[in-house]
Design brief:
alpha/beta, 7-stranded parallel sheet, 6-stranded antiparallel sheet, 14 helices
């Protein structure tokens, strides 16, 4: 079959593609920005990429002919305070783009929405499902519980909390019951449903075999990790305070934390159905899902992460809009060094951030990250998904990767910390010379004052960074 995937660069989309390729399908992958096409998929002949922004409708943009099935995997939670409006807009534009495309089947991944009172997040999922149901195709909706897998927002929050806090004083929503599901099982349901007429115009809850409270989920993770943890729940912690608690302790953004807290107050228990028998899926236990996720992380082979899906990003435009560093109205710190081992230097550049750190003055980088979090920024807590590989769109501490091309010998980063302006950090090699450029475009007088106030720190940090990149020192 010929299958359209929306949300190609998202957490689910990146993982679903290999499942569908293995089943022998031809894929059309829609992306908002062709500059973010995952490198590992670029040269696969069974995949065609099309650039479509579903937030706007452009009548001149058409989908390739002959598509049988489409996966609707677009979500906007935490990208904006009015994410529900954005999600509904995407759904309505999707229907416009597909009105005359001749699709037979659309598969939508939603959340379990069985309570009468829903959070804003789950209400939005339900409204999208209702909007999609009016198209010229059969709709199948899978309503998933909390998804557990390496790089998922839920898993990373659990991991952060358990590994950072021996004693947790937590809000009472930790006693709320939920029914988590492993990412592997979600992908099996999705991939096996394509074109299955038995599922047309129906919805199914998908979930794992365990009904657990969030507290039990945290303690089970601690058990898997061999950590002793104590959890005390307080009935007086407000939703806002709970959101700040998650924001400061975990790698999540504040907006995502607030949306999650709003949802975590509601029990997410699935309705029984025959979907597992129909698609021959036997969901794994929460314990096994945790073990599998940790194994993938230890192998540094996480296929996708919520952090790389532009969740909470500052970008409102395509990455390509930022790749050309401005020449005028900017302040620069440019350094260059002769190198003797180009491959070694490139490998060191590609290992920047995350557990490796920044080769010099890590305490200063951490201090800057801490200040950024105090003022509502991302800080250094995001780290990086892979310690060995980088590609456009990846989160890298408080930077976003704009370009990572080893053939061109260039790495370009864009700052996502709180700044009175915009900042780029570029590394490139030409004729055995490493060029390192920190470029700042200030916003008004305060922006210039900021640049000159941190200039003394830049002298040590950027000199130390380039020197150790060339000399091969770890710190």
């Amino acid at each position: 079959m010929k299958i359209l995937i929306t949300g190609t660069t998202g957490y689910i989309g990146k993982r679903l593609i290999p499942f569908l390729l293995e089943a022998g399908h031809e894929l059309v992958c829609s992306v908002r920005d062709l500059g973010r096409v995952p490198k590992k998929f670029k040269k696969i002949p069974q995949i065609t990429f099309v650039e479509i922004d579903f937030l706007t409708y452009d009548a001149s943009v058409t989908l390739p002919p002959g598509i049988d099935v489409a996966y609707y995997l677009m979500h906007s939670m935490s990208s904006s305070d009015d994410f529900d409006k954005l999600e509904l807009t995407c759904a309505e534009n999707f229907k416009k783009y597909t009105a005359n495309a001749g699709f037979k089947h659309v598969i939508y991944l939603s959340g379990i929405v069985n309570e009468d009172e829903l959070s804003k997040h789950l209400q939005s999922r339900k409204h999208v499902e209702e909007a999609l149901a009016g198209g010229k195709y059969a709709l199948t909706t899978f309503r998933a519980g909390i998804i557990v897998g390496s790089g998922s927002a839920s898993f990373e929050i659990i991991r952060d909390l358990v590994e950072k806090l021996p004693i947790m004083v937590t809000p009472r929503w930790l006693d709320t019951k939920t029914q988590p599901i492993a990412i592997r099982d979600v992908l099996l349901y999705l991939s096996r449903a394509a074109g299955d007429e038995r599922l047309f115009n129906n919805n199914y809850d998908i979930f794992g075999p365990d009904v657990l409270t969030y507290k039990e989920m945290l303690l089970e993770f601690a058990k898997v990790r061999g950590l002793k943890r104590t959890i005390i729940t307080l009935p007086v912690m407000t939703p806002k305070l709970s959101s700040y608690w998650l924001y400061f302790v975990t790698s999540t953004t504040y907006k995502l934390a607030a949306a999650l807290v709003d949802s975590m107050k509601i029990e997410v228990i699935g309705r029984e159905s025959n979907i597992s028998q129909l698609l021959n899926v036997q969901p794994m236990s929460y314990h096994d899902a945790m073990v599998k996720a940790l194994s993938i992380i230890q192998q540094d082979s996480t296929p996708s992460s919520w952090k790389d899906a532009m969740v909470g990003s500052r970008f409102q435009e395509k990455l390509s809009s930022y790749i050309t560093i401005p020449e005028y109205g900017v302040l620069k710190d440019v350094k260059e060094r002769k190198i003797t081992d180009e491959a070694d230097v490139l490998n060191r550049i590609w290992a920047l951030g995350g557990v490796t750190g920044w080769y010099y003055g890590d305490i200063l980088w951490k201090a800057r990250g801490f200040l950024d979090r105090i003022f509502g920024g991302t800080g250094l807590r995001r780290g990086r998904t892979s310690q060995a590989d980088l590609q456009a769109g990846d989160a890298l501490d408080f930077w976003r990767v704009l370009e990572a091309d080893k053939e061109k010998k260039r790495l370009l980063l864009y700052a996502e910390m709180k700044l009175p302006g915009e900042a780029w950090l570029e590394f490139k090699i030409k004729k055995d010379v490493l060029y390192q450029s920190a470029v700042f475009r200030p916003k008004g007088l305060w922006g210039r004052m900021y640049w000159y106030s941190v200039l003394p720190f830049h002298y040590f940090i950027f000199n130390g960074l380039i020197n150790n990149l060339v000399k091969g020192k770890e710190k």
